[in-house]
Design goal:
The structure holds 2 protein chains of 2 kinds. Chain A is an alpha+beta fold. Chain A contains 38 helices and 12 strands. Chain A is rod-shaped. By secondary structure, chain B is mainly alpha-helical. The radius of gyration of chain B is 17 Å and the shape is elongated. Classes of the chains: A alpha+beta, B mainly alpha. Chains A and B meet through helix 4, helix 10, helix 12 and helix 14 of A and helix 1, helix 2, strand 2 and helix 3 of B.
Chain lengths: 1012, 77
């Protein structure tokens, strides 16, 4: 007896009808608020979509060849599940927060909502999923073939034409089923309660079916596990499978690794794990429920494999079909149908979820962004966006399943189920670096993800996909054996000369190495992330930390535009609901960046984040594309300004900033203190508002010089501070804006008044001291010189005296003694006068008002003798003025001048001296005039110098006129002489300071001494 | 939250223990002996048994963790 094909077809339709009932029921319950899938059981069962027809049929086949080797595909996810509370919860949280609906959306969103990435991930997913879908088609179609043809297994399914190929009808059926299920309406959240319910239901069906077959084989056909293994132990070929060979461990490790990645990053796994997750806490239970499910569904795989091998020792029956052929062989048709339905459940759930996920991806992450970028396609002109999206998805589903069918026709027959599945696993694993890196490594960049993913997938194509096609005869086989173009190190199974590796290990190793290597190195090497990329990286990595306040949209948009946009993608009802919710939360509805961000997420839920970004940018501008967010910049700016003001305020100098027209922009506290304007008042004022005209003018001239020279310059500037003119040392320099153009002048002025004054005083003092030093040097020289001549005289005459004493010549003795006396007298008078000179200015008598007439008379008492001796006539003119000063000193002046005149009278027949006064330009000039020998003009400078006697032969010490000069100077006056030349006599004139002037001078003198 | 963190750590430790246990060379210990346990080849028995134990341990930890979660919710955190 065999099963009738119409019966099978009837069963298929009945089963699918049942699925619709389940879906309807679940959705009705969900709408009533009593979800049947909002629990960890349903969540875990939906994750079990991982176990496909591959698990149902293929793992038995693999177990029959590798023993325990088939289990790596389930141990890997079990271990991965241990980290779900870590990794999966983070991905779920991120996806819920950002309304991410596909894995392409997730990756592109993490790396700056990049369209390049979303489209790349979509294409990789489509290409990667192809073998997997073909695997499901192959499984169902071969299960049908087995049922219809058993026990005649000789015919080759590939010889069938399209119309007689059951796989083609199955593909069509799957397309219809998926379209009816997944694209009935557009859901903003992309959550499909009905779908999840169906998947969970199918997971139960396939588990029960497989357990039923397992129990039948182990306990119906054999006497329990023990019996199966004991019998298998007898066959050496089977006993070998009890152990791992050394080569098995490497494959085992890599299969485990690939399965870890695939169990999370296959598009359908992402769909059920992340998108359809209703509650994060379900993850906790799924962490053990999902591994438990896998444990149960693989428990009987090995016994079935061994049972089959023992039952069909000739090897005609493919181990992939043992689940069906064992009940068939035992004529248990009920169990055959159960097993068939189990396999069908496994295949349909996978195809439905995978193609819905891919369809969403293709529409949201590939086609829509492209359409939005086409200028001619104006999204605002299209009324029914959801219709368009659903249309794209339907087409995508048809294309993906048909591609899977084409793939099946191309390579399906030459491969075992498991090898095809592993191809898809290796493709899904390529998403691993970008996702895991993106979750924990902020520096992972868009460029890195693009490079890694494309590099990895190219290697995957080269080392895994193309050889598979070549083996099926679509490429020349020489491609595998000799490498591309016959280059040995390009052999797809021995890349770079790496030999002895299983094709899976080899391909996975190279593709993941290239992927991870490029991802990390390009991320580090280029290192550049734009603002939105950095913003998204922070949002993803720090999802559990406090939400950073990022502003990526500007607040200049019209709410009406936004509303139109929302209605287009969400419908009127949801838009109104959303806006009122927002208004309720925020208090008011205004065009803020927050509203824009919120709206973007809502739209992203419907059409994906890359598309949402493009759509949003049609109604508003992106905010700053700068290094930090707006708030951070603002804060940093304020801090920097405060820092600058504090530094300026604590400087002892005046600091100010003017624009190039001279208006003040900024002054420091010192400026405020000095000029009594606050900094607020100063803004906009010019120098003319603060300083008198000529000073302000000087300031502005200096500013102008700075602007012209375009470099810092130093000036000495003066300004009034109260009644005092202060001197400032100012450094002025231009301030540039971003474009390098000067927009202002900054000045720093330091008060150097005290320093300036001290400098001047020091200069004066130095000149004075230098004159005194010069005088002192000359004095020392002449004193020693003049003192020496009497000493020489004394010595000479002492010699004569000694000789005369021996000879007893009394007359000459007397004469010598006379000479010695004279010489010592001269020395004495010299010393007396030096003493006198030193007293001037040191010892002084109190100043008084003196009649110059009296003073002249007093002087005559002292020098009258000499005048008489020389018969000199002295004329004292009447009406001499009163003078003020030190009486004895001033008398000395007159004495000296008269004496001097008498001394240089020469051979004048009528010698005459005149003492008088004349007035010239307000000055009282006293003079002593003679008609003596006069003075040659070349001696004018030397006359008053110490010991400079014009005629060395004349008597006198040469100190007299020096004394005169000093006394007159002490009295604040001047002394000079006038002469018409030799033989024309000379006039010595002097002035004295008035009483008031002298008193002032005295005061200054005292101050200076106190100061020192 | 304290329990949450401890659970975290336990899971990470279990992950690394699992990776080490289910790989060469630990697995080869069970693969070299010609023995059966309950009539099942040693390698198979060891892997399935430890898989079951691991799942059980995770279930036990997570069930306890669920109680903590409820406690947290009641406290309004």
């Amino acid at each position: 007896m065999t099963l009738q094909s119409y019966l099978i077809i009837l069963i298929v339709f009945l089963y699918m009808g049942l699925l619709f009932v389940v879906a309807q029921y679940a959705e009705r319950r969900a709408n009533a608020g009593k979800s049947i899938i909002n629990n960890p059981w349903a969540y875990s069962l939906s994750i079990a979509v991982y176990c496909t027809a591959w698990t149902f049929y293929g793992s038995v086949g693999r177990a029959a060849v590798t023993g325990l080797g088939f289990l790596g595909v389930y141990i890997g996810p079990t271990l991965m599940a241990l980290l779900w509370w870590f990794i999966l919860r983070k991905i779920v949280r991120i996806s819920k927060t950002h309304r991410i609906t596909t894995i392409a959306d997730f990756i592109s969103s993490r790396y700056g909502k990049s369209f390049a990435l979303s489209s790349l991930v979509t294409i990789v997913s489509v290409v990667g999923i192809m073998p997997y879908i073909s695997l499901q088609l192959k499984a169902v179609s071969s299960s049908l073939n087995v049922i219809f043809q058993y026990p005649d297994m000789g015919s080759n399914p590939q010889s069938l034409s399209l119309l007689t190929d059951s796989a083609f009808y199955i593909a069509i059926l799957m397309i219809l089923f998926t379209i009816m299920f997944g694209t009935r309406r557009l859901d903003a959240s992309e959550q499909h309660e009905g779908l999840v319910a169906v998947v969970a239901f199918e997971s139960i069906v396939k588990l029960c079916a497989f357990l039923a077959v397992g129990l039948f084989v182990v306990y119906g056909m054999y006497g329990g596990m023990e019996d199966v293994y004991q019998k298998a132990q007898m066959v050496p070929e089977l006993k070998d499978l009890f152990y791992f060979k050394n080569a098995d461990y490497t494959i085992w490790l890599w299969v485990m690794l690939l399965a870890m990645m695939a169990s999370m990053f296959l598009p359908r796994q992402f769909q059920v794990l992340v998108v359809e997750n209703l509650d994060e806490r379900h993850i906790k239970q799924a962490m053990w429920m999902f591994p438990l499910y896998m444990l149960l569904i693989t428990m009987f795989t090995l016994p079935i494999a061994f049972g089959g091998k023992l039952r069909f020792p000739r090897g005609i029956i493919s181990p992939d079909t043992f689940v069906l052929t064992l009940p068939l062989a035992e004529q248990n048709f009920f169990l055959v149908v159960v097993a068939f339905i189990g396999g069908l459940a496994a295949a349909t759930s996978m195809v439905v979820v995978a193609t819905i996920a891919i369809g969403t991806m293709v529409s949201n992450d590939l086609v829509l962004p492209v359409l939005l970028k086409i200028r001619g396609f104006r999204i605002s002109d299209r009324g029914n966006i959801s219709g368009l999206i659903l249309g794209i998805r339907r087409i995508a589903i048809v294309v993906v399943i048909l591609l899977g069918y084409v793939n099946f026709r191309l390579i399906g027959s030459s491969y075992a189920l498991v090898s095809i599945g592993l191809l898809s696993f290796a493709a899904a694993a390529q998403f691993g670096p970008a996702i895991l890196g993106g979750l924990y490594w902020k520096e992972g960049t868009r460029a890195g993800a693009l490079a890694g993913l494309s590099g990895g997938i190219l290697v995957w194509l080269y080392t895994m996909m193309f050889p598979a096609l070549a083996k099926s005869g679509w490429f020349p086989v020489s491609f595998i054996e000799d490498g591309l173009f016959g280059i040995a190190f390009l052999k797809p199974y021995q890349l770079m000369g790496v030999e002895g590796l299983n094709w899976l290990v080899h391909g996975s190793f190279w593709s993941l190495l290239v992927n991870l290597g490029l991802y990390i190195s390009v991320s580090i090497w280029i290192g550049y992330q734009n603002a939105i990329e950095r913003h998204q990286a922070t949002l993803f990595v720090d999802i559990f930390k406090r939400k950073p306040k990022g502003i990526l949209w500007q607040d200049r948009f019209v709410i009406g535009d936004l509303k139109k946009l929302l209605i287009r993608f969400l419908g009127v009802e949801r838009t109104e609901q959303f806006l009122s919710e927002y208004e309720h939360l925020q208090g008011e509805l205004e065009s803020s960046p927050e509203l824009a961000e919120y709206a973007e997420k809502m739209i992203a839920g419907a059409i994906g984040s890359a598309s949402a970004r493009v759509v949003m940018s049609s109604v508003m501008e992106e905010a700053i594309d700068a290094d930090a967010t707006y708030m951070e910049i603002k804060k940093a700016l304020r801090e920097s300004e405060e820092r600058l003001q504090t530094i300026m305020d604590n400087a002892p100098a005046i600091i100010y900033l003017k624009d190039i027209q001279g208006h003040y922009l900024l002054v420091n506290r010192e400026y405020e203190r000095l000029y009594h304007f606050t900094r607020e008042e100063m803004v906009g004022k010019t120098d003319y508002d603060v300083h008198p005209g000529e000073i302000a003018k000087a300031f502005q001239e200096n500013d102008q010089k700075v602007l012209e020279s375009n470099q810092p310059l130093q000036f000495e500037e003066e300004a009034w501070e109260g009644d005092n003119l202060h001197t400032y040392l100012s450094v002025k320099f231009p301030i540039y804006d971003v474009s390098g153009k000067a927009y202002g002048i900054c000045g720093i002025s330091t008060d150097i008044t005290k320093r300036k004054k001290a400098e001047q005083e020091r200069e004066l003092l130095i000149t004075k001291l230098e004159g005194q030093k010069e005088e002192l040097e000359r004095f020392t020289y002449t004193v020693s010189h003049d003192l020496k001549s009497p000493v020489v005289t004394v010595r000479g005459f002492l010699g004569f005296l000694e000789r005369d004493l021996k000879e007893g010549r009394q007359d000459r003795i007397d004469k010598s003694i006379q000479r010695i006396y004279a010489a010592t007298d001269k020395m004495n008078s010299l010393l007396e006068e030096l003493l006198e000179l030193s007293r001037i200015g040191r010892l002084s008598n109190p100043a008084e008002d003196i009649s110059f007439q009296e003073l002249v008379n007093e002087a005559l008492d002292a020098v009258g003798g000499r005048l008489e001796e020389k018969n000199i006539q002295l004329n004292v003119l009447p009406d001499l003025p009163k003078i003020y000063g030190d009486r004895p000193r001033l008398r000395e002046v007159v004495e000296n001048l008269i004496d001097n005149a008498a001394k240089y009278m020469g051979d004048q027949s009528t010698p005459c001296i005149e003492v008088g006064v004349r007035y010239h330009s307000g000055q009282t000039i006293l003079y002593v005039q003679d008609n003596g020998i006069g003075i040659e003009s070349k001696y004018h400078e030397n006359v008053f110098r110490l010991f400079d006697k014009l005629d060395p032969n004349t008597e006198g010490t040469g100190i007299g006129l020096a004394i005169v000069k000093r006394i007159v100077e002490v009295h604040g006056g001047q002394v000079w002489f006038e002469s018409k030349g030799l033989g024309h006599g000379s006039t010595f004139c002097f002035t004295l300071a008035s009483r008031e002037e002298q008193q002032q001078l005295e005061l200054q003198e005292k101050e200076l001494q106190v100061g020192e | 939250m304290k329990t949450g963190l401890a659970t975290h750590k336990t899971m990470i430790i279990l992950f690394f223990l699992g990776v080490v246990f289910f790989n060469y060379p630990i697995l080869s210990i069970f693969s070299s002996k010609d023995e059966m346990i309950f009539g099942i080849p040693l390698l198979y028995a060891a892997v399935f048994l430890s898989w079951g134990v691991l799942t059980g341990v995770v279930a036990w930890i997570m069930r306890t963790g669920e109680a903590d979660d409820r406690g947290m919710e009641e406290n309004g955190t």
